[in-house]
Write a structure and sequence with these properties.
The chain is an alpha/beta fold. The protein has 10 helices and 12 strands.
């Protein structure tokens, strides 16, 4: 049974008329009739009920139609995949992200992507969510990792499953370092260093409660690294998500969880309905594949 003959069969099934089907296929009516008769002979069953005005499928014809559609769809996908494998995909994908634990998930996506497309360069731009969003709108960043809350209007995105707890950081010799957990009451006595993003500050304010305005906020910082340097010099206590501290040496700075706990999640996002390069489209496919 040839793919060409299956296509003939499907055209007749759709048109329900030999003459119209032959015209669609650019072959003569007798040729098409002979091909259909040969197909029925090959399968040993009738596929059509031929009426005076139209042709209808038998039960066996309906079954063949369903299978033929599956076969042709599989053929198309197979040809597409083979062409893609033979196609050298080059270029770059620019990713904007902050300093948080979800970058570990990004690394897994990049690892899988790089195995398939080793000639594509991945560019990482580290910045706050607000800056990354602006760069995406300008077309300077293709993919963004955003700590929630974030405005997702005009974006397609996947939410990274892992929630990240908030922590407070301090020098190892600090009295607060002896505590298992740090409470709201403890924070009232400290010079705090908060994230610069107003949305994130609002999350912390909601968690802290009505006395938030009374806190001593000595610094705000757009990235965790500079906040930790201030803490090492005894200038304040950074409040941040734990993932931003994952790779710091605990001999110089340590972290404690807050009580009650507060969590944030991260999304990986890209602008909707944008004509991306082939490399970026393949990276988006990889995001879906890794999250499946």
């Amino acid at each position: 049974m040839e793919i060409r003959i299956l296509n003939y069969f499907l055209t007749v099934a759709r048109e329900q008329n030999i003459t119209r089907a032959a015209k669609q296929l650019h072959i003569t009516q007798p040729t098409l009739s002979r091909q259909l008769a040969a197909l029925e002979e090959e399968l040993g069953t009738k596929l059509f009920v031929r009426g005076s005005k139209k042709i209808c499928l038998t039960e066996e014809g309906v079954l063949l139609k369903r299978r033929a559609l599956e076969i042709l769809d599989l053929e198309e996908k197979t040809i597409e995949e083979i062409k893609e494998r033979g196609e050298l995909i080059e270029g770059s994908v620019t990713i904007g992200c902050g300093e948080f634990g979800a970058v570990e998930e990004l690394a897994k996506i990049c690892e899988s992507f790089h195995r398939k497309y080793p000639h594509v360069q991945i560019r990482i731009h580290t910045a706050t969510a607000d800056i990354v969003a602006d760069m995406m709108n300008q077309g300077l960043v293709d993919i963004g990792l955003f700590l929630e809350p974030v405005n997702t209007e005009g974006l397609d995105y996947m939410r990274i499953a892992e929630r990240e707890p908030w922590v407070i950081c301090m020098r190892p010799e600090d009295e607060l370092a002896k505590k298992e957990l740090v409470t709201r009451e403890d924070l009232k006595k400290l010079a705090l260093i908060l994230p610069e993003r107003t949305n994130v500050q609002s999350e912390f304010a909601n968690w802290f409660g009505r006395d938030f305005e009374k806190l001593n906020i000595a610094f705000v910082s757009n990235l965790a690294t500079n906040a930790v340097i201030m803490a090492q010099h005894g200038l304040g206590y950074p409040v941040m998500i734990e993932g931003a501290m994952r790779f710091w040496n605990e001999e110089s700075i340590i972290r404690k969880h807050l009580d009650p706990p507060i969590y944030s999640q991260t999304i990986i996002a890209w602008r909707r309905n944008i004509p991306y390069s082939l490399a970026v489209r393949k990276f988006i496919d990889e995001i879906y594949a890794c999250e499946a």
